[in-house]
Amino acid sequence: MSVVAGRKEHRVKDIALRHGRGSKQGDVRAHNERLMLSLVRRHGALAKAEIARLTGLSPQTVSVIMRKLEEEGLLARGTPVRGRVGQPSIPMTLAPDGAFSLGLKIGRRSVDLVLMDFVGRVRETRRRNYAWPLPGAVLDFARVEIAALLSDLPAAQRARIVGLGIASPFELWNWADEVGAPQTEMDAWRDVDLLAGLESGLPFPVFLQNDATAACVAEVVFGRGSAFKDFFYFFIGFFIGGGVVIDGAVFTGSGGNAGAIGSMPVLGRTGKPVQLIDAASICLLESRLKAARIDPSPLWLQPDNWDGFGKILDAWIADIARNLAHAIAAACSVIDFPAAIIDGGFPPRVRQRIVAATKAAMSKLDLQGLNPPAIVEGEAGQNARAIGGACLPLLNRHILDQTSFMKDAV
Predict the structure, then answer these.
(1) By three-state DSSP, how is residue 136 classified?
(2) Domain 24-97's class?
(3) Nearest to 249 by CA among 7, 4, 2, 15
(4) What's this model's pTM, rounded to 2 decimal places?
(5) C-beta of residue 404 within 8 angstroms of C-beta of residue 35
(6) Which residues, listed in sequence order, are joined to residue 122 by a DSSP beta bridge?
(7) Can you give the pLDDT at residue 126?
(8) What is the tens place of the pLDDT at every residue in 331-388?
(9) What angle do CA 255, 219, 192 make, to 5 degrees?
């Protein structure tokens, strides 16, 4: 195992462990605070009586905790709702300025830094494009842009930053040929410890997660996670990745490799089996554009506008939709997913077309014995990986797993 992967595993496990039920009074109080914040995040504005009903906690305990969270600036009062009798009900919402987090997405063609507030709104974005990623350049970008971003923030907001989350592909050195990079340069990633490279100069903790898994986390916390308890998730970037969500939480499996959908076998254009990563990725579109002598750089330099790619884009959408349909059918034959969510690093219009084409491709498959899932667009969008990175500190500090919401009050 590489140094990077080893450190990643430790940090992600730390987050999960801190979600556990506390045995001491302080742990119990902290757990219930996170439980209430998580319920408000999931359901929207909630009044004291509703939180007491959902958690099983006494109204007095709920009042004490909600008052503390309001004093700390994490909850804000909504407009009172008057009923027929008694005092008006006061719904509580998350305070956007209650907490901030940073997300760093390391991609194969660009690196992005976002500042996200407590309700998932991206306040600031910094980006740098490159031909291929090199650790020195990525770390320099992160250090410079984080320092600049922090200096621009008011002191009160700067003090509320809870951490930095890094979303990065692992073992970047294995993909030199695909990104067109010299192997000797990509080999520099073998001994890089991203956590150590950044956390020593920052006053808050740093976390690391696979980029596709981070995108899936973003969809759970700030996207379709409130609509679907279980779903199969695709994120189409330079390569394709994804995740499995069961009972409202990202499922990583015993070896941490669940949702490695890039390795799923599908039929290629020639009818021979290929891996999904070779049949449904932006890398494939880039290669086709190059073969047609069309400049592919707008894929990365103008991610909001792919209007100039014409028939090549049309054919690419048709091909990946066919392969996504087969992958969805295969996944649903193992777990009865009610939904498959598709997102990626492309314009919303392209995402809409991919979803529509995948639905059409699914309708042509023999699905006897299966319950066809809803195929829907992701909501996190192009910034899903960076937003997912920014979710990691919030998971560590303020959010419980969705599976804890209804059964884990103490």
Answers:
(1) helix
(2) mainly alpha
(3) 15
(4) 0.88
(5) yes
(6) 116
(7) 96
(8) 999 999 999 999 999 999 999 999 999 999 999 999 999 999 999 999 999 999 999 9
(9) 50
Q: Where are the domains of the chain?
A: 3-11+99-210+386-397, 24-97, 224-379
Residues 6+ apart with CB under 8 A from 74: 37, 94, 95, 98, 99, 118, 398
- 224-379: CATH homologous superfamily? ATPase, nucleotide binding domain (3.30.420.40)
- Sole residue written with tokens 């899932």: 373
> Does this chain's domain 3-11+99-210+386-397 share its CATH topology with 224-379?
yes
pLDDT tens, 86-97? 566 889 999 999
Tokens read off for 284 = 């494939």
Q: Which CATH superfamily is domain 3-11+99-210+386-397 in?
A: ATPase, nucleotide binding domain (3.30.420.40)
Q: What is the DSSP secondary-structure string of 7-70?
A: HHHHHHHHHHHTTSPPSSHHHHHHHHHHHHHHHHHHH-SB-HHHHHHHH---HHHHHHHHHHHH
- Report which secondary-structure segment, H or E, holds 152: helix 135-152
Q: How many CA atoms lie within 13 A of 65 on its CB side?
A: 24
